[in-house]
Amino acid sequence: MPQWEKTLQRVPSGQADASIAFQDLCVLLPHVGYDERRQRGSHRIFKHPDRPEKINLQPMENGKAKPYQVKQVRELLRKYGHERGGNHV
To answer: How would you class 32 by CB atoms within 10 Å of its CB: exposed for 0-12, middle for 13-18, buried for 19 or more?
Structure first.
């Protein structure tokens, strides 16, 4: 199973927010339809062509994603049916 699929399984649970790697989250988003629009320093900004929300991510010093940003991604995955087993993945 590819790493992005493992990340897709972990994000919806909400139990691993502090242990999701920043890079894994950045790799997951294109697989569920988000394009990386730009990068400014450590900030990476993703946008879906059909949705108004943007996702702005930046890593913590330990290479992990910020837990509140993992939560934001989880909420968008749930909102638009991208969870594993949903109709878009």
So the answer is: buried
Q: Do the domain assignments include residue 17? A: yes
Domain with 28 in it: what CATH number? 3.30.920.30
Per-residue pLDDT of the chain (89 residues), as tens digits, is: 899 999 999 998 888 899 999 999 999 999 999 999 878 788 999 999 999 999 999 999 999 999 999 999 999 999 988 754 343 44
Is there a domain that residue 47 lies in?
Answer: yes
| Residue 64, in any domain of the structure | yes
Task: State pTM to two decimals.
Answer: 0.84
Given a contact cutoff of 8 angstroms between Cβ atoms, the answer to whether 7 and 20 are in contact is yes
